[in-house]
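Wed. Picked up where I left off yesterday with RidA family protein. The coffee machine is broken again, so keeping this brief.
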Amino acid sequence: MGTFESKLAEMGVTLPDAPAPAANYVPYVQVGDMLYVSGQISKDGDTLITGKLGDDMDTAQGAEAAKVCAIALLAQVKAACGGDLDRLKRVVKLTGFVNSTADYGEQPHVVNGASDFIGEALGETGKHSRSAVSAAALPFGVAVEIEGIFQIG
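Structure written out below (tokens, as returned):
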């Protein structure tokens, strides 16, 4: 077990198999040492985490949904690296989409669920740039979707 997966294990997290795409796209594209991972929705196992922030979900629930997205992102990175997550050199950028009402303004706090998790799990490698934006709706009614750009070796 590599360094990153050992840290995840200490945190009580085992990466699942990388989720299969839900439509006509690939889960990731590698260009040189850059890896572009498609948006990962808030889905824990077979259970979709659905809801709209500012309506039927609170910020803490949204942050937990964002963490689930981050776990799926790391699962995709591991798959792209042939099973060796330690090939990850840097989390470059995350873009988080939050299913939220027009007057909800805590999208950054929701996406912190992913950023905080990645920072704790990956340390310096996990420091990244980020966007957190509102969406009127997301696929399947999920609460959060996050895509990422990673540098791998």
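Quick read: The chain has one domain: 3-152.
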